[in-house]
Design brief:
Number of domains of chain A: 2
Strand content of chain B: 15-25%
Strand order of the largest sheet of chain A: 7-6-5-8-4-1-2-3-9
Mean pLDDT of chain B: 87
Largest sheet of chain A: 9 strands, mixed
Oligomer: heterotrimer
Low-confidence stretches of chain A: 203-211
Number of domains of chain B: 2
Shape of chain A: globular
CATH topology of the largest domain in chain B: Rossmann fold
CATH class of the largest domain in chain B: Alpha Beta
Radius of gyration of chain B: 24 Å
Helix content of chain B: 25-40%
Number of helices of chain B: 10
Radius of gyration of chain A: 22 Å
Largest interface: A-B, 85 and 90 residues
Order of helices and strands of chain B: HEEEHEHEHEHEEEEEEEEHEHEHEHEH
Distance between the termini of chain A: 39 Å
Helix content of chain A: 10-25%
Chains: A alpha/beta (about 240), B alpha/beta (about 350), C alpha/beta (about 600)
CATH architecture of the largest domain in chain A: 3-Layer(aba) Sandwich
Structural class of chain B: alpha/beta
CATH superfamily of the largest domain in chain A: HUPs
Low-confidence stretches of chain B: 24-38
Mean pLDDT of chain A: 92
CATH superfamily of the largest domain in chain B: HUPs
Shape of chain B: elongated
Strand content of chain A: 25-35%
Number of helices of chain A: 6
Structural class of chain A: alpha/beta
CATH topology of the largest domain in chain A: Rossmann fold
Largest sheet of chain B: 7 strands, parallel
């Protein structure tokens, strides 16, 4: 199977340094379960960002860089490369971590190339000419999908862990540089400010009467009743 | 330049209108409880017969009922609509009593998306058609797993930008994090917005009257998703770091078969303290803590666990903790929302008897 | 007649030794090249043997007597016999009495050797060829004694018995215990870490060429030849096994078996090892064809084995060499190691915290943060313990002491990166080199006379391991600083309490840097009732927090900190004084009733007047 893993320029959330997006590294690990490393290519449109190059340390052996201004819209460059490479499967992280982080690009690419897309996969298997996808849903739930090939699949954080970083692999990886296609980014007139933490809503239902309560030596039955009352809203619905 | 709309801003700050108008001028997002002394006689629902414009709220309504996030989505659309515009709620078929819930949540119209099974491609087409038919100013989605997926499909289909995961919303400004959460983007609300859970207040005002609108008419085309089945969830097999409710056994537990039984009955995922795993009483994979699994649970029940520093590191982000321990001075007691000074083994048995 | 035959036997045995040594030499040639100062090594050999080796041997007095008798007697008798080829000596009756005396001493030694394993063989001693050793030793010594003291046929019979013993011993040079005599002597001369002798604390790891075709040790032949020689010097005395905290906790590491695994990997005929195995794991494993990764990741790099080894073998260097290969080439560090290394790579600290959080512990303290170009007398290196809420209390206490003493000091603040200790011990030499270069560059932008740190790991790395990266600093541990401040009357402490306190030596302070006196002097000001654990100073027992062990987290039967806390309990102490963030975290992680754990800085700060 010919697989492309989309890589984005990631940033460490605390230090701000270039750092691969963890869920994209998990996508590489999933790809390696499906196909030999030689048929898997990392694809990035932008600059040779260290965060993208570091993906080579996690099991990826080949990386194609479509050199464009990172402020450009990568869609046209990526779409052209997918037309050329004709992959059976394109993997991406469910969200980037370091750019606009909107998770929109895989969907735009799917639309541009008329490929089906499925989100939040944690396992992928070939199923005849289709793909069997296991999708992660909230609270540990799972959904099984059958998806026509070629397809774009985004990977969820609950997927198996990424391969550990190996310095040798990072150094030995092959990097193909190609010119990208310059394209202006979709206009979004926003203002950028340092992030300010805002309090979450305190929802009515998560305020049990016993919150912050201390019960000193209750009878086991009283204690059990209090526990059940507190826990009720979190039990499987 | 962002033009300000004082009236809409004031509306956005409304926490409740009954029994008296209350405003949250800080607009910090945290809402108060629904007023306890709600009027005995139901107020006349607000009916917006001739809206000046429309706002869309696309909800998940899993199981045919509105969840918290759905109400927040409708609340956000309500905020954007103000008093004179109508909120159109696009929803999967709802359970019988639920249309009332739409009005209570602030919706004025309902479009039921006639999609019998999981088919996000089809839903996206229907919503895109509805957008063409009704030309809403904004479309608000929940930034949830399926809601976020649908929002992106609609964005790609309509070639629009999605303002994904808004954490603050007024008629004139939406804010969301970007660049690994290090910055925030502020913008005039664009057409497509998804809102992060528990950030935007639901509507608590006088209920609206929600009238049905016809579903958009789009010919069904075969999509790329050929089949979908939702799998039954067994709490015991959810990976510990994804489990919403975890119950863990420590030193104070002696009957581990009974403990696992209780976890099953409670629908909780079992965990354990390091000491218990070291002793081999429960498998190492169940260990909660810095050297075991770091939890992302909503609620954690600690049975007979004192709360060593490394253990507390493993439950650092858990908001709701129930601790049952004989030692009043145990570290976990200070951390618990419900702390019970009692023998964990006894309480465990009482719990099993109740379930 | 018997005398002549005996001299001939000695010369034939010498030839046999030479042939056997050459056969060993061919095995060591498999190893990678190493630059060895042969002249200096040979010149230092007697001193290394008589001082360094015997200082270790003498820690077990019975073994010391045994080894002096058998080695001294055997070598003296044989050397005298060889010299008896000189006619003048051959003719001197007194000379033969001397030889007889030497054989008698050797015979006594042989009896002592036998007594080590008979009637009961201690678990840490190997069986196998070691069981026949006393027979050969005894035969050679007894035969020599008979040949030199009895006339006629009895004398000749003695020669025959000595020949049996001597040939047996020579045969054991390639495949048995006597290998240690040949390899041991050469190992002392060609030691891979020549700076460690004569009381020196040299214990830093050597940097790795990151452009090499093979990174670290991936096959047995990747070890330098003098490392292979060193492994062959092992006499399987089991002192490392007794010292090893991982072995004691039932983790799958026995340092003695580890060295024998290396010896086996370098031979086609494979394993002849007959001692305790690596606990709870079946040999052989995939690493070097003999080992399991779990064995290597169990090591806390505490160097207790190295300090206990009379043959001066460098177990920890070998462990790190293989870890480098596993981590750099295969990304095979287990547990949470990859996450910790990623945090170091991208955030510059082990917890992945925002760099600004390094000063969170000091909120309100108004610490002076050095900007490039600024100067200060004492630079306070905070270390990654600063991110830990508990350890912040220790750092605040230390800052309080430094302020009370009126010291001119400052911190690097958010610019400080982790020293790289964790990366280096986990084998991520690339990560370590990056951190080392960044920190050395940062330290180059400011001026200071010395660095003070409360973290012995940072102390060791800054003092010993940054030198290869161009960083040469005076680094002082906070216990040494406090000791200095008390002696100089810069701080005054209240009267000593009567709390029973025992001091736990951090490995990277006590063993790696041989600093054990200053903390004890400080403690003597704090309490009149300081007690020592059975394992203290250079023989201290690790807390389990070194070498990345908490992140690789290899399971055993018990936990190392629990064992150490039990040793503290045995002293009757109600408090364990510590001097390292790692030790604090590990020992405070022991659950159940236990002595309190306090850093010396906290105790001193409380006692300030």
């Amino acid at each position: 199977m010919n697989i492309i893993v989309l890589l984005s320029a990631g940033r460490d959330p605390h230090a701000g340094t270039p750092r691969p997006v963890p869920v994209e590294l998990q996508a590489i690990a999933l790809a390696l379960r499906l196909a030999p490393a030689t048929t898997i290519t990392g694809l990035h449109a932008g600059e040779p960002d260290p965060s993208v190059l570091d993906a080579l340390g996690h099991g990826l052996t080949t990386l194609t860089l479509l050199l464009t201004n990172p402020a450009n819209d990568p869609l046209a460059a990526l779409a052209a490369e997918i037309d050329r490479a004709r992959p059976d499967l394109v993997l991406a992280g469910r969200r980037g971590r370091g750019g606009t982080d909107s998770g929109l690009l895989p969907y735009r690419l799917a639309r541009a190339r008329a490929m089906p897309i499925a989100a939040d996969a944690i396992a992928i298997e070939p199923d005849g000419n289709d793909l069997a996808i296991l999708q992660s849903l909230p609270r540990g739930a799972r959904r099984r999908l059958t998806l026509a090939r070629p397809a774009i699949v985004t990977i969820h954080e609950a997927a198996p862990p990424a391969r550990a970083f190996a310095y040798r692999a990072r150094r030995n990886g092959t990097i193909h540089e190609k010119p990208g296609i310059p394209a202006p980014s979709p206009t979004d007139n926003h203002e950028i400010r340092p992030y300010r933490q805002r309090p979450r809503l305190i929802a009515e239902t998560t305020q049990p009467t016993t919150a912050g309560h201390l019960m000193l030596a209750p009878t086991p039955e009283t204690a059990a009743a209090a526990v059940l009352a507190y826990v009720e809203q979190f039990r499987r619905r | 330049m962002i033009r300000r709309d004082p009236r809409a801003e004031r509306d956005a700050m409304v926490v409740s209108r009954t029994p008296r108008l209350r405003l949250d001028r800080t607009h910090r997002g945290g809402t108060l409880l629904a007023p306890a002394g709600a009027p005995v006689t139901a107020p006349t629902p607000i009916h917006i017969a001739e809206p000046t414009f429309l706002e869309f709220a696309v909800i998940e309504a899993a199981g045919g009922a509105l969840n918290r996030h759905d109400r927040q989505v409708i609340g956000a659309a309500r905020t954007l609509a103000g008093r004179d515009a109508a909120v159109v709620v696009l929803t999967p078929p709802l359970a019988a009593q639920a249309p009332d819930a739409i009005g209570t949540a602030g919706g004025d119209r309902t479009i039921t998306l006639p999609t019998p099974t999981y088919d996000p491609e089809r839903n996206a087409q229907l919503i895109a058609q509805a957008i063409i038919d009704h030309a809403p100013r904004h479309v608000v989605f929940p930034e949830s797993a399926d809601g976020g997926d649908l929002a992106r499909r609609v964005a790609a289909l309509t070639d629009a930008v999605l303002f994904a995961g808004a954490e603050s919303l007024t008629p004139t400004q939406v804010i969301r994090p970007a660049q690994a959460g290090r910055v925030e983007l502020r913008a005039t609300p664009p057409r497509l917005i998804s809102i992060a859970p528990d950030r935007i207040a639901p509507y608590h005002g006088t209920p609206h009257a929600a009238d049905p609108l016809p579903a958009p008419d789009v010919a069904a085309t075969p999509g790329g998703i050929r089949a979908a089945t939702t799998l039954a969830v067994d709490a015991a097999t959810i990976p510990l770091d994804q489990a919403p409710l975890v119950i863990a056994a420590g030193n104070g537990v002696t009957d581990f078969a009974g403990f696992l039984d209780l976890a099953r009955a409670l629908g909780a995922t079992p965990g354990a303290s390091r000491v218990v795993c070291d002793a081999g009483a429960l498998p190492r994979a169940l260990q909660v803590g810095a050297s075991g699994t770091v939890l992302n649970a909503e609620c954690y029940i600690a049975l007979g666990i004192s709360g060593a520093p490394q253990h507390l590191q493993g439950i650092g982000t858990v908001e709701h903790i129930v601790a049952i321990n004989t030692d009043l001075h145990a570290a976990i007691i200070a951390r618990a929302g419900l702390a019970i000074i009692a023998d964990a083994q006894d309480v465990m048995q009482a719990l099993r008897a109740m379930l | 007649m018997a005398f002549g035959a005996l001299v001939l036997l000695a010369w034939l045995l010498l030839a046999g030794v030479a042939i056997q040594a050459a056969r060993l030499g061919l095995l060591w040639r498999h190893g990678a090249g190493a630059s060895v100062d042969w002249l200096g090594g040979l010149r230092a050999l007697p001193r290394r043997y008589l001082v360094d080796v015997h200082a270790v041997v003498a820690r077990k007095p019975a073994s010391s007597v045994m080894h002096q008798a058998i080695a001294g007697g055997l070598l003296a008798a044989t050397a005298l016999l060889l010299l008896a080829a000189i006619p003048a000596l051959f003719a001197a009756a007194l000379y033969w009495l001397l030889i007889a005396l030497a054989f008698a001493v050797a015979l006594f030694g042989a009896v002592l050797v036998r007594r080590r394993r008979v009637p009961v063989r201690p678990a840490s001693l190997s069986a196998g060829a070691f069981l026949t050793l006393p027979t050969y030793l005894g035969a050679y010594a007894a035969g020599g004694l008979i040949a030199t003291s009895l006339p006629g046929v009895a004398g000749l019979l003695g020669v025959a018995v000595a020949a049996f013993g001597g040939i047996g011993l020579v045969a054991q040079i390639t495949g048995g215990p006597m290998r240690h005599a040949v390899a041991g002597a050469l190992h002392l001369a060609a030691h891979p870490r020549p700076a460690r002798f004569a009381g020196s604390a040299a214990s830093g790891l050597a940097p790795l060429d990151l452009d090499a075709t093979r990174l670290g040790v991936g096959t047995i032949d990747d070890f330098a030849w003098n490392r292979l020689l060193g492994f062959d010097a092992c006499i399987q005395c089991g002192r490392c096994e007794e010292a090893c905290p991982a072995f004691a906790a039932g983790q799958p590491l026995n340092p003695k078996a580890l060295i024998q695994d290396f010896c086996a990997a370098n031979r086609k005929d494979g394993a002849t090892y007959a001692g305790s195995p690596h606990p709870g794991i079946a040999s052989p494993g995939p690493v070097l064809g003999v080992l399991h990764g779990e064995t290597l990741w169990s090591c806390t790099t505490c160097r207790a084995c190295v300090a206990a080894c009379p043959m001066m073998i460098e177990h920890v260097d070998a462990v790190i060499d293989i870890r480098r290969n596993l981590t750099l080439e295969h990304g095979a560090a287990p547990g949470k190691a990859d996450a910790a290394l990623a945090a170091l790579r991208y955030a510059g600290n082990t917890g992945g915290f925002a760099p600004t959080q390094r000063l969170d512990f000091a909120a309100g303290l108004k610490l002076r943060v050095l900007a490039p170009g600024e100067a200060v007398d004492t630079l306070l290196w905070l270390g990654d313990g600063a991110f830990d809420r508990r350890y912040g209390a220790t750092l605040r206490a230390l800052i309080g002491i430094m302020r009370a003493a009126g010291l001119d000091f400052a911190v690097l603040g958010p610019a400080e990166r982790d020293c790289g200790d964790l990366a280096r011990r986990l084998g991520d030499e690339a990560g370590f080199a990056r951190l080392a270069r960044a920190n050395v560059a940062l330290l180059g932008t400011i001026r200071f006379t010395r660095i003070v740190t409360a973290d012995p790991h940072a102390l060791h790395v800054l003092r010993q391991e940054y030198q290869a990266f161009g960083g040469h600093y005076t680094v002082v541990h906070h216990t040494a600083l406090i000791d200095e401040l008390i002696t100089a009357n810069r701080i005054t402490l209240g009267p000593a309490s009567d709390t029973v306190i025992t001091y736990h030596d951090p490995c990277y302070l006590g063993r790696y840097n041989r600093e054990t006196a200053a903390p004890r002097r400080v403690l003597a000001h704090l309490t009149g009732r300081a007690v020592e654990m059975a394992r203290a100073r250079e023989a201290s027992f690790c807390c389990g927090g070194g070498g990345g062990a908490p992140v690789t987290d290899i399971p055993g039967k018990q936990r190392i900190p629990d064992l150490r806390m039990e040793q503290a309990r045995e002293t009757g102490a109600s408090m364990v004084a510590v001097a390292c963030p790692g030790c604090t975290a590990m020992l405070e992680g022991v659950v159940g009733p236990r002595p309190l754990v306090r850093d010396i800085a906290e105790l001193v700060h409380e006692a300030l007047q």
